[in-house]
Each structure stands twice: as C-alpha cells, then as structure tokens.
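[worker-b] picked up task from shared queue
[worker-b] task type: protein-ligand structure
[worker-b] ligand name resolved to oxaloacetate ion; SMILES cross-checked against name lookup, match
[worker-b] sequence length check passed
[worker-b] input payload:
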Amino acid sequence: MAGGGVEDAYGEDRATEEQLVTPWSFSVASGHSLLRDPRHNKGLAFSEAERDAHYLRGLLPPAIVSQEHQEKKIMHNLRQYTVPLQRYIAMMDLQERNERLFYKLLIDNVEELLPVVYTPVVGEACQKYGSIYRRPQGLYISLKDKGKVLEVLKNWPERSIQVIVVTDGERILGLGDLGCQGMGIPVGKLSLYTALGGVRPSACLPITIDVGTNNETLLNDEYYIGLRQRRATGDEYHELLQEFMTAVKQNYGEKVLVQFEDFANHNAFDLLAKYSKSHLVFNDDIQGTASVVLAGLLAALKVIGGGLVDQTYLFLGAGEAGTGIAELIALEMSKHTDLPVDDCRKKIWLVDSKGLLVESRKESLQHFKKPFAHEHEELKTLLEAVQSIKPTVLIGTSGVGKTFTQEVIEAMASFNEKPVIFSLSNPTSHSECTAEEAYTWSKGTAVFASGSPFDPVEYEGKTYVPGQSNNAYVFPGFGLGVVISGAIRVHDDMLLAASEALAEQVTQENFDKGLIFPPFTNIRKISANIAAKVAAKAYDLGLASRLPRPDDLVKYAESCMYTPLYRSYR
Ligand SMILES: O=C([O-])CC(=O)C(=O)O
Ligand SMILES: [Mg+2]
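[worker-b] inference finished, payload out:
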C-alpha cells in the first residue's frame, strides 16, 4: 500500500521499489482452457456461434443443451447415489468444473442439496477430507508460512474479496478437532454465502489456518493433509493469527468481512473480543447461531404466547453457541423492557459438563460463563436442573448427542403445555435428541427445532414438520447486508435486526404446520430482507460507508445478488 491508500499491485511506485510483486497476467480464455475454467465453462451449453468464436469446434460433441437440461441430468445422477458422501464428492466435482451450474443446482434445489454440501454430510467429508481430496479449495495458511502470510494471500487469484470464512479446525461442528481437514467448513459456508445470500463466488475466500492438530487418529492417518504436529498454542498461535488479521486488512482493506468459524471456545471468544475493535469480524458460532435462535424464539412466542421476558431458559452446553444465544436473548429482552441486561440474564440458566452454573462455582468458571452463574444450590445433571428450574425453553448446544433423554423431555412436557425444545448440536449424530423423540416423548406438544435437518414425523395420525434452527438462515443475508452497505464494523444491534427480519418471514401457513422457521426454499427472498434490515441498521449506526444510502434497501440487496444463469460470450 502506498500513495493515497490505493494498492500498488503492479509495482509502479517508488515507495514499493523494494517490495516483491506477483506478475499476474490475465488473458481471454478460449479452446481447451475455456472448458477447463470452472468460472466460464458451460459444458454442452455453448452455442454454435460461441463454439466458432472460441475455438471449441471438435472439443465438444455436437449436441447443444440448455442449462435447465444440464440441471435435470445432474439432479437425476445425484439421486442415483445412495452413499451421501458420493453426492458430496459429485457436488464438489461440479463446483470445480462448472461453477454456475453448481450454484444453479444449489439455488433451485436448496432443501435437497443443503444437507449434502452442508450439515450433516460436510461433517463426514471433513473427517475423510484427506482420502477424498482431489484439488485444493481455498487457501491454506500454516505455521510454515509465518512471516509470509501476506505473500500467501497474494497467491490467491482473486483481488476483490468481500467475505472470508476462516477456521483453525479445532472444533468442527460437534465433531471436535479435525485440523487442516476442517477446510470443508469454510468452503461449504461460502457456497451458502453465494447460493443463499447472493455474494459473488469470486468475492468469497475460504481459509484454513493450520497450527497442527491434537487428533491422534488424524496424526496417524496416512492420508492426512495437514501439519503432522500437535497444536501450537499461546504466543505462537496468537502471533500467526495477528499476522493473518493484519495481512487481510493490508491486502483487502477495511471492508472485508472475516467470519470466524468452528474455533474452539478458548480461542473463539478471545479472537472475537480482540479483533472486533479493529476489524470487520463476525463469529458465526457465537453470533450467527444466536441471531437464528433468537429469531426462532420470537416466532415460537406466537405459538406458545407471552413475551421473551416471560420465559425461563435452560441451556445444556455453555460454550460459544450457548452463551452467545443467552447473551443475545438478554440483550433483546432488555431492549424491549426497562430491565438492565444483567437482570435479564437471571432468567437464563446454563448447564455445562460439570452441572448447573451457580454462584458457588463462579471462581472456577471461564469468563464467558460467569454472567450466568446465579444463586442456586449445586446440581450435577440436566434432569435435576430441568426439575428444579422448570424452564419453558430448553436449548441444547453441548455438541453431545442423545443428552435430551426421555425423562428430560417428559419432564419438560409435564409442566409446559407447549415446551420449546431446540437440539442444536451438529451434525445429526450429535443432536441432543431426534425430532421423533421430541414429538413422541412430549406427546406431540413440543415446539421443536434442530441444528441439522430432520424429516417430518408422523405421530398419532398427525404430521409434525421440525424447523432447522441453523445459522445458515442468517449469515448469508447478514453478510450481504454488511457488504452492500460497506459496513466497517459489526454491532450487536445488527444481529438483533437480522433476528427480527428472519422472525418476520415466518408466515401463518408455516405456523399452521408447526414451523417456527420459514422453509429454505424462499431463502434468497429471506436473505434480501435480512440484508436490508442489517444494512439499514449499519446506516443508522453510522457504520456504513457506501453512500448515498439507497432508498429501497430490499430492492438494492436483490439487485446486488449473484445470479447463476449462463452469460453469452461475444
Ligand atoms: O455448520 C453448521 O451446521 C452450524 C454451525 O456453525 C456449527 O455447528 O458449528
Ligand atoms: Mg460452525
């Protein structure tokens, strides 16, 4: 960066004489290289004129087919695979071969394909990432790159990046430390940024920071793709992250959104607190999950009656998701009453692996748990806590499956007419209970949602459709709102705006089916509304830099959204 703050990409200024430059050169793709370029390849959809103009004659069979026809064929092929991981691999192959077709499939068949490119199948893909690895996706930054992170960023072929999703792989979904193989998560999240939120694929950058792994199975796996060493911690870890965050701002400027994803608790809270002052950062597991769950609760209130402040909340799991949700509920409650946030926190109870968070345990608790340690006798188990606290809302964020047992759910149903039960841990195998268990054990009274998808359940002749309370409802639209307003910081009020926007999108028809989240089928419209509300809040708070403020933010958001339709080539 030199004169005027504009990057000297070609090395033209005196001030950058000593610096290394990357000799990027771009030319028009044609012939074989056009077919190999996923961003421009259209497969058999190239017209006769395009085949002439771009030296494609003979490189393709004679048939010319439409994008719709290609879509039909690939959906048919995908449905032949019985092993979910095969579908994942087929989708990744498509993304690397024909990007527009990949996104057209994902957008048009979102309910069917979300579980393939996202939770639960992406979890298995990360576990086996080394074995299924074909071509690199995203950018790998490891301890070996210390001192050279800026150079690594400059190797990425795109210059205009708007959203980065970064992980260090230490807590992938509820699956734990998957090291470098966590790359599947930033890749998957960003494909949703594009498909669900409309952020351009070329503006998205998936990054995995490899500081080693403590996963013995991976360290001994002959196909592991990461550094074979135990995790660096302390100064060594923080220096690499500091170098990374600095390089991101140097290379892409102030307005690139950095989404932290699937970091372990001990780093997630600290990184968010540290960098939210100087960078445009967002932690999806803390803030994105919180925003979606709050939206689900606001919608659930229409079913169970009463306000947020009239509920009693109990969480199993006091990590990023649990405390993130709890804080956002307290904040929203406080905004709509005269109560100080600290009083609102008193309505919220959390259970961690050692039992209920209570005053007498406060000294030994991690800082993010302390605000929720209230006066109460010590209780060791969830069941005891449920029986004693008598919550109206039970939320699972523990990462441990099968923990909402029959006794727990029956207890919830014994003192609530309509118990609200969210089992949020991912993937499906780690869900606190299944949809079927929630409906059966509560005798059909539960208002239920889960982090990973479950099919509708038949119970005593009635069909119950569970909602998917997953941060995928919010981060794509939230990111779009940040990007289109040119916001330079994330503020909690922008998260509340996203929750309210999402809750407003639940229709009477959805409620009639027992749904407290709208179906993903309409997600692009939902994202445009979320983006507009988030952008409006950024303007109101003076955080937006894109001026003048557009009059109709929904329309503006829609006009900014990526479309996967093939373009014609001259
Ligand atoms: O990826 C998902 O499905 C939701 C999420 O952020 C997590 O579980 O860490
Ligand atoms: Mg996550």
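[worker-b] attaching auto-annotations
[worker-b] The first helix runs from residue 31 to 35.
[worker-b] releasing lock
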